[in-house]
Amino acid sequence: MDCIYKNPLASIEERVKDLLSCMTLEEKIGQMAQIERTVATPSVIKNLSIGSILSVGGSGPFEDAPSEAWADMVDGFQKAALESRLGIPLLYGVDAIHGNNNVYGATIFPQNVGLGATRDAELAQKIGAVTALEVRACGINYDFAPCVAVCRDPRWGRCYESYGEDTQLIREMTSIVTGLQGQPPPEYPKNYPFSAGRDKVVACAKHFVGDGGTAGGVNEGNTISSYADLEKIHIAPYIDCIAQGVCTVMASYSKWNGCHLHASHFLLTEVLKVKLGFKGFVITDSEALDRLSDPYGSNYDQCIMAAINAGIDMVMVPFRYQLFLDHLKYLVESGKIPTTRIDDAVERILRVKFVSGAFEYPLSDRSLLDTVGCNQHRELAREAVRKSLVLLKNGKDVTKPFLPLDRKANRILVAGKHADDLGFQCGGWTKTWEGMGGRITIGTTILEAIKDAVGRETDVVYEENPSPDTFASQDFSYSIVVVGEPPYCESGGDSQDLKIPLGGEELISLVADRVPTLVILISGRPLYIEPSLLEKMDAFVAAWLPGTEGAGITDVIFGDFEFHGRLPMTWFKSVDQLPMHQEQNSYEPLFPFGYGLTSKNKVL
Protein backbone atom coordinates (compact mmCIF):
# COMPACT_ATOMS: atom_id res chain seq x y z
CA MET A 1 0.00 0.00 0.00
CA ASP A 2 1.33 3.46 -0.93
CA CYS A 3 2.15 5.89 1.85
CA ILE A 4 -0.65 8.33 2.55
CA TYR A 5 1.80 11.24 2.57
CA LYS A 6 2.51 10.69 -1.12
CA ASN A 7 -1.18 10.96 -2.04
CA PRO A 8 -2.04 14.53 -3.11
CA LEU A 9 -5.76 13.74 -2.65
CA ALA A 10 -5.35 13.07 1.07
CA SER A 11 -5.81 15.97 3.48
CA ILE A 12 -2.78 17.98 4.55
CA GLU A 13 -3.14 16.84 8.17
CA GLU A 14 -3.44 13.17 7.13
CA ARG A 15 -0.29 13.49 5.06
CA VAL A 16 1.59 15.23 7.88
CA LYS A 17 0.56 12.60 10.43
CA ASP A 18 1.49 9.73 8.11
CA LEU A 19 4.90 11.10 7.18
CA LEU A 20 5.75 11.95 10.78
CA SER A 21 4.97 8.36 11.78
CA CYS A 22 7.51 7.11 9.21
CA MET A 23 10.38 9.30 10.43
CA THR A 24 13.33 8.45 12.66
CA LEU A 25 14.57 10.95 15.24
CA GLU A 26 17.52 11.76 12.98
CA GLU A 27 15.19 12.53 10.07
CA LYS A 28 13.01 14.71 12.27
CA ILE A 29 15.82 16.87 13.58
CA GLY A 30 17.31 17.05 10.09
CA GLN A 31 14.09 18.71 8.96
CA MET A 32 14.59 21.32 11.68
CA ALA A 33 17.91 22.48 10.21
CA GLN A 34 18.39 25.17 7.58
CA ILE A 35 21.94 25.22 6.21
CA GLU A 36 23.91 27.41 3.80
CA ARG A 37 24.11 26.35 0.16
CA THR A 38 27.94 26.29 0.16
CA VAL A 39 28.01 23.41 2.65
CA ALA A 40 24.96 21.59 1.25
CA THR A 41 26.56 18.67 -0.56
CA PRO A 42 24.27 15.99 -1.98
CA SER A 43 25.40 13.52 0.67
CA VAL A 44 24.71 15.99 3.50
CA ILE A 45 21.24 16.77 2.16
CA LYS A 46 20.37 13.12 1.56
CA ASN A 47 21.91 11.45 4.58
CA LEU A 48 20.91 14.03 7.18
CA SER A 49 17.42 14.67 5.76
CA ILE A 50 18.10 18.41 5.78
CA GLY A 51 14.87 20.41 5.82
CA SER A 52 15.95 23.65 4.24
CA ILE A 53 18.81 25.48 2.53
CA LEU A 54 19.42 29.21 2.32
CA SER A 55 21.61 31.70 0.54
CA VAL A 56 23.30 33.83 3.20
CA GLY A 57 23.50 37.50 2.22
CA GLY A 58 23.26 37.07 -1.54
CA SER A 59 25.36 33.91 -1.76
CA GLY A 60 24.71 32.53 -5.25
CA PRO A 61 25.98 30.14 -7.91
CA PHE A 62 28.54 32.64 -9.25
CA GLU A 63 29.04 36.38 -9.77
CA ASP A 64 26.06 37.98 -11.55
CA ALA A 65 24.41 34.60 -12.02
CA PRO A 66 21.16 34.86 -13.99
CA SER A 67 17.93 33.24 -12.83
CA GLU A 68 18.50 30.15 -14.97
CA ALA A 69 21.77 29.41 -13.16
CA TRP A 70 20.00 29.74 -9.83
CA ALA A 71 17.30 27.32 -11.03
CA ASP A 72 19.97 24.80 -12.07
CA MET A 73 21.59 25.05 -8.64
CA VAL A 74 18.38 24.78 -6.62
CA ASP A 75 17.11 21.87 -8.74
CA GLY A 76 20.35 20.06 -7.97
CA PHE A 77 19.74 20.45 -4.25
CA GLN A 78 16.13 19.31 -4.59
CA LYS A 79 17.13 16.20 -6.52
CA ALA A 80 19.46 15.24 -3.68
CA ALA A 81 16.64 15.69 -1.16
CA LEU A 82 14.29 13.57 -3.25
CA GLU A 83 16.83 10.74 -3.14
CA SER A 84 16.66 10.58 0.66
CA ARG A 85 14.83 7.64 2.26
CA LEU A 86 11.51 9.48 2.51
CA GLY A 87 11.99 11.87 -0.41
CA ILE A 88 11.06 15.01 1.54
CA PRO A 89 11.64 18.12 -0.63
CA LEU A 90 13.50 21.19 0.56
CA LEU A 91 12.45 24.71 1.26
CA TYR A 92 15.09 26.99 -0.29
CA GLY A 93 15.15 30.40 1.37
CA VAL A 94 16.38 33.82 0.25
CA ASP A 95 16.02 37.40 1.42
CA ALA A 96 14.00 38.75 -1.51
CA ILE A 97 12.90 41.82 0.41
CA HIS A 98 12.47 44.35 -2.42
CA GLY A 99 12.17 42.12 -5.44
CA ASN A 100 14.45 39.14 -6.01
CA ASN A 101 17.33 41.39 -5.03
CA ASN A 102 20.08 38.73 -4.97
CA VAL A 103 19.74 37.92 -8.65
CA TYR A 104 21.28 39.80 -11.58
CA GLY A 105 18.65 41.23 -13.91
CA ALA A 106 15.74 40.92 -11.50
CA THR A 107 13.31 43.79 -10.93
CA ILE A 108 14.35 45.74 -7.84
CA PHE A 109 11.52 47.63 -6.14
CA PRO A 110 11.75 50.50 -3.65
CA GLN A 111 12.71 49.41 -0.15
CA ASN A 112 9.82 49.07 2.30
CA VAL A 113 10.11 52.58 3.75
CA GLY A 114 9.38 53.92 0.27
CA LEU A 115 6.42 51.58 -0.16
CA GLY A 116 5.11 52.87 3.16
CA ALA A 117 5.17 56.37 1.67
CA THR A 118 2.85 55.19 -1.13
CA ARG A 119 0.10 54.21 1.35
CA ASP A 120 -0.98 51.79 -1.41
CA ALA A 121 -1.87 48.32 -0.12
CA GLU A 122 -2.97 47.15 -3.57
CA LEU A 123 0.40 48.15 -5.01
CA ALA A 124 2.16 46.23 -2.23
CA GLN A 125 0.15 43.13 -3.09
CA LYS A 126 1.08 43.44 -6.77
CA ILE A 127 4.75 43.82 -5.83
CA GLY A 128 4.48 40.67 -3.72
CA ALA A 129 3.05 38.76 -6.68
CA VAL A 130 5.82 39.93 -9.03
CA THR A 131 8.50 39.15 -6.46
CA ALA A 132 7.07 35.65 -6.03
CA LEU A 133 7.18 35.08 -9.80
CA GLU A 134 10.80 36.16 -10.13
CA VAL A 135 11.83 34.15 -7.05
CA ARG A 136 10.07 31.01 -8.30
CA ALA A 137 11.75 31.43 -11.69
CA CYS A 138 14.97 30.64 -9.80
CA GLY A 139 13.49 27.43 -8.39
CA ILE A 140 13.29 29.09 -4.97
CA ASN A 141 10.15 28.50 -2.90
CA TYR A 142 10.78 30.39 0.36
CA ASP A 143 11.17 34.15 0.83
CA PHE A 144 12.22 35.72 4.15
CA ALA A 145 9.74 38.57 3.67
CA PRO A 146 7.93 40.72 4.59
CA CYS A 147 9.51 42.66 7.43
CA VAL A 148 6.53 43.99 9.39
CA ALA A 149 8.57 45.85 12.00
CA VAL A 150 7.13 49.10 13.31
CA CYS A 151 10.16 51.40 13.27
CA ARG A 152 9.94 53.73 16.25
CA ASP A 153 13.41 55.28 15.83
CA PRO A 154 15.20 56.16 12.55
CA ARG A 155 18.56 55.59 14.21
CA TRP A 156 17.87 51.87 13.72
CA GLY A 157 20.00 50.42 10.91
CA ARG A 158 17.05 48.42 9.56
CA CYS A 159 14.69 51.39 9.39
CA TYR A 160 14.33 51.08 5.60
CA GLU A 161 13.10 47.49 5.96
CA SER A 162 10.06 48.85 7.82
CA TYR A 163 7.05 50.43 6.14
CA GLY A 164 7.06 53.17 8.77
CA GLU A 165 6.46 54.21 12.36
CA ASP A 166 2.68 53.74 12.47
CA THR A 167 1.15 50.36 13.32
CA GLN A 168 -1.96 50.90 11.20
CA LEU A 169 0.18 51.74 8.15
CA ILE A 170 2.18 48.52 8.57
CA ARG A 171 -1.04 46.53 9.01
CA GLU A 172 -2.32 47.85 5.68
CA MET A 173 0.92 47.02 3.88
CA THR A 174 0.84 43.39 5.05
CA SER A 175 -1.22 42.87 1.88
CA ILE A 176 2.15 41.94 0.36
CA VAL A 177 1.71 38.54 2.07
CA THR A 178 -1.26 37.78 -0.18
CA GLY A 179 0.82 38.87 -3.17
CA LEU A 180 3.64 36.51 -2.21
CA GLN A 181 1.51 33.49 -1.23
CA GLY A 182 -1.81 34.02 -2.98
CA GLN A 183 -5.32 34.66 -1.70
CA PRO A 184 -6.83 31.97 0.55
CA PRO A 185 -10.38 31.04 -0.52
CA PRO A 186 -13.27 32.14 1.74
CA GLU A 187 -13.76 28.68 3.24
CA TYR A 188 -10.06 28.18 4.04
CA PRO A 189 -9.26 27.26 7.68
CA LYS A 190 -8.53 30.27 9.87
CA ASN A 191 -4.86 31.02 10.62
CA TYR A 192 -3.75 28.00 8.59
CA PRO A 193 -0.68 28.31 6.31
CA PHE A 194 -1.52 28.98 2.67
CA SER A 195 0.33 29.05 -0.65
CA ALA A 196 -1.46 29.08 -3.97
CA GLY A 197 0.81 27.26 -6.40
CA ARG A 198 3.91 27.17 -8.52
CA ASP A 199 4.08 30.93 -9.05
CA LYS A 200 3.84 31.69 -5.31
CA VAL A 201 6.29 31.37 -2.44
CA VAL A 202 6.26 30.57 1.26
CA ALA A 203 6.40 33.97 2.99
CA CYS A 204 7.92 34.87 6.35
CA ALA A 205 6.64 37.64 8.63
CA LYS A 206 9.57 39.04 10.59
CA HIS A 207 11.09 39.77 13.09
CA PHE A 208 8.86 38.66 15.94
CA VAL A 209 8.59 40.90 17.84
CA GLY A 210 9.48 44.49 18.75
CA ASP A 211 12.60 44.65 16.56
CA GLY A 212 11.76 48.21 15.54
CA GLY A 213 11.17 49.41 19.07
CA THR A 214 14.55 48.95 20.73
CA ALA A 215 15.93 51.59 23.07
CA GLY A 216 17.92 54.15 21.09
CA GLY A 217 17.18 52.33 17.84
CA VAL A 218 20.03 49.89 18.52
CA ASN A 219 19.90 46.89 16.20
CA GLU A 220 19.37 43.62 18.10
CA GLY A 221 18.79 45.76 21.19
CA ASN A 222 16.22 45.73 23.95
CA THR A 223 12.60 46.80 23.54
CA ILE A 224 11.38 48.08 26.89
CA SER A 225 7.60 48.17 27.10
CA SER A 226 4.52 46.76 28.77
CA TYR A 227 2.89 43.77 27.13
CA ALA A 228 -0.12 45.95 26.33
CA ASP A 229 2.08 48.35 24.33
CA LEU A 230 3.97 45.49 22.68
CA GLU A 231 0.66 44.01 21.56
CA LYS A 232 -0.85 47.30 20.40
CA ILE A 233 2.22 48.59 18.54
CA HIS A 234 4.34 45.62 17.45
CA ILE A 235 2.29 42.40 17.55
CA ALA A 236 -0.74 43.78 15.69
CA PRO A 237 0.70 43.43 12.13
CA TYR A 238 1.33 39.72 12.75
CA ILE A 239 -2.37 39.20 13.34
CA ASP A 240 -3.01 40.44 9.78
CA CYS A 241 -0.23 38.26 8.35
CA ILE A 242 -1.57 35.17 10.11
CA ALA A 243 -5.10 35.95 8.91
CA GLN A 244 -3.72 35.90 5.33
CA GLY A 245 -2.19 32.47 5.91
CA VAL A 246 1.44 33.48 6.31
CA CYS A 247 3.38 30.22 6.43
CA THR A 248 6.33 31.15 8.62
CA VAL A 249 7.38 33.69 11.23
CA MET A 250 11.00 34.62 11.98
CA ALA A 251 12.02 35.38 15.54
CA SER A 252 13.91 38.60 16.27
CA TYR A 253 17.52 38.89 17.42
CA SER A 254 16.32 41.56 19.85
CA LYS A 255 15.11 41.31 23.44
CA TRP A 256 11.90 42.30 25.15
CA ASN A 257 12.48 43.67 28.63
CA GLY A 258 15.82 41.90 28.73
CA CYS A 259 14.61 38.49 27.49
CA HIS A 260 15.90 37.18 24.16
CA LEU A 261 13.00 36.68 21.75
CA HIS A 262 14.54 33.41 20.59
CA ALA A 263 14.22 32.07 24.14
CA SER A 264 10.81 33.51 25.04
CA HIS A 265 8.29 30.72 25.57
CA PHE A 266 5.73 33.36 26.49
CA LEU A 267 5.94 35.22 23.19
CA LEU A 268 6.74 32.38 20.77
CA THR A 269 4.40 29.75 22.18
CA GLU A 270 1.85 31.29 24.53
CA VAL A 271 1.24 34.39 22.41
CA LEU A 272 2.14 33.54 18.79
CA LYS A 273 1.11 29.89 18.62
CA VAL A 274 -1.64 29.69 21.24
CA LYS A 275 -3.22 33.13 21.54
CA LEU A 276 -2.82 34.15 17.88
CA GLY A 277 -3.39 30.59 16.64
CA PHE A 278 -0.39 30.50 14.27
CA LYS A 279 -0.10 27.02 12.72
CA GLY A 280 2.92 27.50 10.47
CA PHE A 281 6.50 27.23 11.70
CA VAL A 282 8.77 29.61 13.58
CA ILE A 283 12.30 29.98 12.23
CA THR A 284 15.33 31.58 13.86
CA ASP A 285 17.33 34.37 12.33
CA SER A 286 20.79 33.45 11.05
CA GLU A 287 23.06 31.95 13.73
CA ALA A 288 20.66 33.34 16.34
CA LEU A 289 21.27 30.52 18.82
CA ASP A 290 24.94 31.51 18.99
CA ARG A 291 23.82 34.96 20.18
CA LEU A 292 21.91 33.61 23.18
CA SER A 293 25.07 33.24 25.27
CA ASP A 294 28.11 35.38 25.97
CA PRO A 295 30.68 34.85 24.59
CA TYR A 296 29.16 34.19 21.18
CA GLY A 297 28.56 30.48 20.53
CA SER A 298 29.19 29.31 24.12
CA ASN A 299 26.90 27.11 26.24
CA TYR A 300 25.51 25.64 23.04
CA ASP A 301 23.40 22.91 24.70
CA GLN A 302 21.70 25.51 26.86
CA CYS A 303 21.06 27.79 23.86
CA ILE A 304 19.52 24.99 21.79
CA MET A 305 17.40 23.81 24.69
CA ALA A 306 16.18 27.32 25.49
CA ALA A 307 15.22 28.09 21.88
CA ILE A 308 13.54 24.78 20.96
CA ASN A 309 11.64 24.58 24.23
CA ALA A 310 10.56 28.20 23.77
CA GLY A 311 8.88 27.31 20.47
CA ILE A 312 11.51 27.56 17.72
CA ASP A 313 10.74 25.00 15.00
CA MET A 314 13.46 25.48 12.36
CA VAL A 315 16.97 26.69 13.11
CA MET A 316 18.93 28.77 10.62
CA VAL A 317 22.34 27.26 11.29
CA PRO A 318 24.26 28.01 8.10
CA PHE A 319 27.58 26.35 8.84
CA ARG A 320 27.66 24.57 12.23
CA TYR A 321 24.84 22.25 11.26
CA GLN A 322 26.53 19.00 12.31
CA LEU A 323 27.27 20.36 15.77
CA PHE A 324 23.68 21.56 16.06
CA LEU A 325 22.23 18.19 15.00
CA ASP A 326 24.50 16.24 17.34
CA HIS A 327 23.62 18.45 20.32
CA LEU A 328 19.91 18.47 19.50
CA LYS A 329 19.83 14.68 19.27
CA TYR A 330 21.57 14.39 22.65
CA LEU A 331 19.14 16.84 24.25
CA VAL A 332 16.14 14.87 22.99
CA GLU A 333 17.56 11.47 23.94
CA SER A 334 18.43 12.75 27.43
CA GLY A 335 14.89 14.10 27.90
CA LYS A 336 15.90 17.76 28.13
CA ILE A 337 13.80 18.51 25.05
CA PRO A 338 10.55 16.52 24.93
CA THR A 339 9.88 14.39 21.85
CA THR A 340 6.44 16.02 21.75
CA ARG A 341 8.16 19.39 21.14
CA ILE A 342 10.19 17.87 18.28
CA ASP A 343 7.07 16.30 16.77
CA ASP A 344 5.21 19.63 16.98
CA ALA A 345 8.08 21.43 15.23
CA VAL A 346 8.33 18.86 12.45
CA GLU A 347 4.55 18.74 11.98
CA ARG A 348 4.59 22.49 11.40
CA ILE A 349 7.47 22.26 8.90
CA LEU A 350 5.83 19.40 6.99
CA ARG A 351 2.48 21.22 7.01
CA VAL A 352 4.08 24.18 5.21
CA LYS A 353 5.84 21.89 2.73
CA PHE A 354 2.60 20.11 1.84
CA VAL A 355 0.62 23.37 1.66
CA SER A 356 3.21 24.94 -0.65
CA GLY A 357 3.03 22.08 -3.16
CA ALA A 358 6.70 21.21 -2.68
CA PHE A 359 5.93 17.48 -2.74
CA GLU A 360 4.05 17.71 -6.04
CA TYR A 361 6.29 20.29 -7.72
CA PRO A 362 9.76 20.24 -6.13
CA LEU A 363 11.64 21.40 -9.22
CA SER A 364 11.73 24.78 -10.96
CA ASP A 365 9.24 25.86 -13.61
CA ARG A 366 11.43 27.12 -16.46
CA SER A 367 8.46 28.78 -18.16
CA LEU A 368 8.73 31.53 -15.52
CA LEU A 369 12.23 32.59 -16.60
CA ASP A 370 10.93 35.01 -19.24
CA THR A 371 9.13 37.02 -16.54
CA VAL A 372 12.36 38.03 -14.77
CA GLY A 373 13.00 41.74 -15.22
CA CYS A 374 10.36 41.96 -17.96
CA ASN A 375 8.92 45.31 -19.04
CA GLN A 376 5.64 44.73 -17.21
CA HIS A 377 7.47 44.13 -13.93
CA ARG A 378 9.73 47.14 -14.40
CA GLU A 379 6.72 49.32 -15.14
CA LEU A 380 5.23 48.26 -11.81
CA ALA A 381 8.49 49.15 -10.07
CA ARG A 382 8.51 52.50 -11.86
CA GLU A 383 4.96 53.15 -10.64
CA ALA A 384 6.07 52.29 -7.10
CA VAL A 385 8.93 54.79 -7.35
CA ARG A 386 6.57 57.52 -8.58
CA LYS A 387 4.13 56.93 -5.75
CA SER A 388 6.86 56.73 -3.09
CA LEU A 389 8.31 60.20 -3.71
CA VAL A 390 7.52 62.71 -0.98
CA LEU A 391 7.69 66.40 -1.87
CA LEU A 392 8.69 68.30 1.27
CA LYS A 393 9.41 71.75 -0.16
CA ASN A 394 8.48 73.34 -3.47
CA GLY A 395 9.69 76.91 -3.95
CA LYS A 396 11.16 79.47 -1.60
CA ASP A 397 7.88 81.30 -2.09
CA VAL A 398 4.96 78.86 -1.77
CA THR A 399 2.98 80.91 -4.28
CA LYS A 400 5.69 80.21 -6.88
CA PRO A 401 6.28 76.45 -7.06
CA PHE A 402 9.71 75.37 -8.31
CA LEU A 403 8.46 72.01 -9.61
CA PRO A 404 7.72 70.63 -12.08
CA LEU A 405 11.03 71.30 -13.76
CA ASP A 406 11.33 72.70 -17.27
CA ARG A 407 12.48 69.83 -19.47
CA LYS A 408 13.39 72.28 -22.24
CA ALA A 409 15.82 74.34 -20.17
CA ASN A 410 19.06 75.31 -21.91
CA ARG A 411 21.51 73.76 -19.48
CA ILE A 412 20.99 71.64 -16.33
CA LEU A 413 23.60 70.75 -13.75
CA VAL A 414 23.26 67.31 -12.15
CA ALA A 415 25.50 66.72 -9.13
CA GLY A 416 26.13 64.07 -6.49
CA LYS A 417 27.33 60.48 -6.59
CA HIS A 418 23.82 59.16 -6.01
CA ALA A 419 22.69 60.61 -9.35
CA ASP A 420 24.55 57.97 -11.31
CA ASP A 421 25.03 54.97 -9.03
CA LEU A 422 22.58 52.11 -9.36
CA GLY A 423 23.86 50.34 -6.26
CA PHE A 424 23.43 53.44 -4.10
CA GLN A 425 19.94 53.82 -5.56
CA CYS A 426 19.02 50.29 -4.43
CA GLY A 427 20.59 50.30 -0.96
CA GLY A 428 21.37 47.32 1.26
CA TRP A 429 20.18 43.77 0.62
CA THR A 430 20.90 44.17 -3.09
CA LYS A 431 23.27 41.71 -4.76
CA THR A 432 25.02 41.32 -1.41
CA TRP A 433 24.03 41.51 2.25
CA GLU A 434 25.29 45.06 2.77
CA GLY A 435 24.66 46.22 -0.79
CA MET A 436 27.33 47.93 -2.87
CA GLY A 437 27.92 50.83 -5.22
CA GLY A 438 28.23 50.76 -8.99
CA ARG A 439 26.33 49.17 -11.84
CA ILE A 440 25.44 46.08 -9.88
CA THR A 441 22.52 44.95 -12.04
CA ILE A 442 20.26 46.04 -14.92
CA GLY A 443 18.45 49.30 -14.35
CA THR A 444 18.22 53.05 -14.94
CA THR A 445 20.08 55.59 -12.85
CA ILE A 446 18.57 58.95 -12.03
CA LEU A 447 21.06 60.68 -14.35
CA GLU A 448 20.16 58.37 -17.24
CA ALA A 449 16.49 59.03 -16.58
CA ILE A 450 17.09 62.81 -16.60
CA LYS A 451 18.89 62.60 -19.94
CA ASP A 452 15.99 60.57 -21.37
CA ALA A 453 13.38 62.98 -20.02
CA VAL A 454 14.71 66.36 -21.18
CA GLY A 455 14.41 67.92 -24.60
CA ARG A 456 16.94 67.28 -27.38
CA GLU A 457 18.32 70.79 -27.13
CA THR A 458 18.90 70.64 -23.39
CA ASP A 459 22.50 70.27 -22.26
CA VAL A 460 22.78 68.02 -19.19
CA VAL A 461 26.09 68.52 -17.37
CA TYR A 462 26.95 65.89 -14.74
CA GLU A 463 29.67 66.54 -12.19
CA GLU A 464 29.75 64.30 -9.15
CA ASN A 465 31.49 67.02 -7.12
CA PRO A 466 31.35 70.35 -8.95
CA SER A 467 33.78 73.10 -8.01
CA PRO A 468 33.33 76.89 -8.07
CA ASP A 469 34.98 76.81 -11.51
CA THR A 470 32.02 74.80 -12.80
CA PHE A 471 29.77 77.81 -12.28
CA ALA A 472 32.26 80.42 -13.44
CA SER A 473 32.37 79.01 -16.95
CA GLN A 474 28.74 77.93 -17.48
CA ASP A 475 25.23 79.28 -16.94
CA PHE A 476 22.73 76.77 -15.58
CA SER A 477 18.96 77.10 -15.68
CA TYR A 478 18.77 75.00 -12.53
CA SER A 479 20.48 72.11 -10.80
CA ILE A 480 19.45 68.71 -9.51
CA VAL A 481 21.58 67.60 -6.56
CA VAL A 482 21.22 63.95 -5.57
CA VAL A 483 22.75 63.06 -2.21
CA GLY A 484 22.17 60.49 0.50
CA GLU A 485 23.34 57.39 2.27
CA PRO A 486 25.59 54.64 0.91
CA PRO A 487 24.26 51.08 1.14
CA TYR A 488 24.23 49.46 4.59
CA CYS A 489 22.33 46.85 6.54
CA GLU A 490 21.54 45.78 10.07
CA SER A 491 23.95 47.02 12.77
CA GLY A 492 26.15 48.63 10.12
CA GLY A 493 23.37 51.12 9.54
CA ASP A 494 22.86 52.16 13.16
CA SER A 495 23.51 55.91 13.40
CA GLN A 496 23.45 58.31 16.31
CA ASP A 497 23.74 61.56 14.31
CA LEU A 498 21.78 60.78 11.12
CA LYS A 499 23.70 63.37 9.14
CA ILE A 500 23.78 63.31 5.36
CA PRO A 501 27.01 61.38 4.70
CA LEU A 502 29.62 61.65 1.94
CA GLY A 503 29.78 65.44 2.07
CA GLY A 504 26.13 65.81 1.08
CA GLU A 505 25.46 68.95 3.11
CA GLU A 506 28.51 70.72 1.68
CA LEU A 507 27.53 69.77 -1.87
CA ILE A 508 24.01 71.11 -1.43
CA SER A 509 25.33 74.40 -0.07
CA LEU A 510 27.92 74.78 -2.80
CA VAL A 511 25.38 74.32 -5.59
CA ALA A 512 22.32 75.96 -4.02
CA ASP A 513 24.29 79.11 -3.24
CA ARG A 514 24.86 79.56 -6.97
CA VAL A 515 21.97 77.96 -8.91
CA PRO A 516 18.27 77.29 -8.19
CA THR A 517 18.36 73.74 -6.85
CA LEU A 518 16.18 70.68 -6.47
CA VAL A 519 17.61 68.35 -3.82
CA ILE A 520 16.73 64.66 -4.07
CA LEU A 521 17.62 62.65 -0.96
CA ILE A 522 18.35 58.94 -1.40
CA SER A 523 18.11 57.42 2.06
CA GLY A 524 16.55 54.66 4.10
CA ARG A 525 15.11 57.09 6.64
CA PRO A 526 14.71 60.76 7.53
CA LEU A 527 18.09 62.45 8.00
CA TYR A 528 19.07 65.58 9.87
CA ILE A 529 18.54 68.73 7.77
CA GLU A 530 20.04 72.00 9.00
CA PRO A 531 17.36 74.75 8.88
CA SER A 532 19.75 77.00 6.93
CA LEU A 533 20.35 74.20 4.45
CA LEU A 534 16.62 73.68 3.91
CA GLU A 535 16.25 77.42 3.27
CA LYS A 536 18.82 77.26 0.48
CA MET A 537 16.95 74.52 -1.38
CA ASP A 538 14.35 75.55 -3.92
CA ALA A 539 12.73 72.13 -3.74
CA PHE A 540 13.30 69.02 -1.62
CA VAL A 541 12.19 65.47 -2.44
CA ALA A 542 12.60 62.38 -0.28
CA ALA A 543 13.10 59.51 -2.72
CA TRP A 544 14.05 56.83 -0.16
CA LEU A 545 15.83 53.83 -1.78
CA PRO A 546 13.98 53.56 -5.10
CA GLY A 547 15.58 50.49 -6.68
CA THR A 548 16.41 49.96 -10.34
CA GLU A 549 13.78 52.15 -11.99
CA GLY A 550 15.16 55.69 -11.80
CA ALA A 551 12.71 56.91 -14.43
CA GLY A 552 10.01 56.85 -11.78
CA ILE A 553 11.69 59.93 -10.31
CA THR A 554 11.84 61.89 -13.55
CA ASP A 555 8.21 60.97 -14.29
CA VAL A 556 7.25 63.14 -11.34
CA ILE A 557 9.83 65.95 -11.13
CA PHE A 558 9.20 66.88 -14.77
CA GLY A 559 5.44 66.85 -14.26
CA ASP A 560 4.19 63.79 -16.16
CA PHE A 561 2.72 62.52 -12.89
CA GLU A 562 1.70 64.28 -9.68
CA PHE A 563 3.38 63.72 -6.31
CA HIS A 564 1.58 61.07 -4.30
CA GLY A 565 3.82 60.09 -1.36
CA ARG A 566 3.35 61.00 2.28
CA LEU A 567 5.91 60.59 5.03
CA PRO A 568 5.82 57.10 6.58
CA MET A 569 7.91 58.46 9.46
CA THR A 570 8.15 61.70 11.37
CA TRP A 571 10.94 63.94 10.05
CA PHE A 572 12.68 65.21 13.18
CA LYS A 573 14.27 68.63 13.65
CA SER A 574 17.07 67.33 15.86
CA VAL A 575 18.29 63.88 16.85
CA ASP A 576 17.86 65.05 20.45
CA GLN A 577 14.11 64.72 19.87
CA LEU A 578 14.35 61.00 19.09
CA PRO A 579 12.45 58.83 19.44
CA MET A 580 9.47 60.95 18.42
CA HIS A 581 6.06 59.89 17.14
CA GLN A 582 2.90 61.58 15.99
CA GLU A 583 0.94 60.65 19.12
CA GLN A 584 3.27 62.57 21.45
CA ASN A 585 2.00 65.75 23.12
CA SER A 586 5.31 67.58 22.60
CA TYR A 587 5.33 66.89 18.86
CA GLU A 588 7.37 69.55 17.04
CA PRO A 589 8.83 67.88 13.95
CA LEU A 590 10.47 69.40 10.93
CA PHE A 591 7.76 67.62 8.90
CA PRO A 592 5.00 65.59 10.56
CA PHE A 593 4.11 61.96 9.90
CA GLY A 594 1.89 61.79 6.82
CA TYR A 595 3.15 65.08 5.37
CA GLY A 596 3.60 65.54 1.64
CA LEU A 597 2.91 68.21 -0.97
CA THR A 598 1.62 68.23 -4.51
CA SER A 599 3.46 70.24 -7.15
CA LYS A 600 0.90 73.01 -6.55
CA ASN A 601 1.93 73.08 -2.86
CA LYS A 602 -1.28 71.54 -1.68
CA VAL A 603 -0.80 69.36 1.41
CA LEU A 604 -1.83 65.79 0.63
From TrEMBL:
GO terms, molecular function: beta-glucosidase activity
Q: Name one Pfam family in it.
A: Glyco_hydro_3
Domain Glycoside hydrolase family 3 N-terminal: start-end pairs: 24-352
SUPFAM superfamilies registered for this protein in UniProt: (Trans)glycosidases, Beta-D-glucan exohydrolase, C-terminal domain
Q: Which GO terms describe its biological process?
A: glucan catabolic process
The Glycoside hydrolase family 3 C-terminal domain extends over 389-598
Q: Which InterPro entries match?
A: Cellulose_Degrad_GH3, GH, Glyco_hydro_3_C, Glyco_hydro_3_C_sf, Glyco_hydro_3_N, Glyco_hydro_3_N_sf
> Is Transferase included in the keywords of this UniProt record?
no
Source organism, top-level taxon: Eukaryota
Q: Which keywords has UniProt assigned to this entry? A: Glycosidase, Hydrolase
State whether keyword Hydrolase applies: yes
| PANTHER family on file | BETA-GLUCOSIDASE BOGH3B-LIKE, PERIPLASMIC BETA-GLUCOSIDASE-RELATED
Protein name stated in the entry: Beta-glucosidase
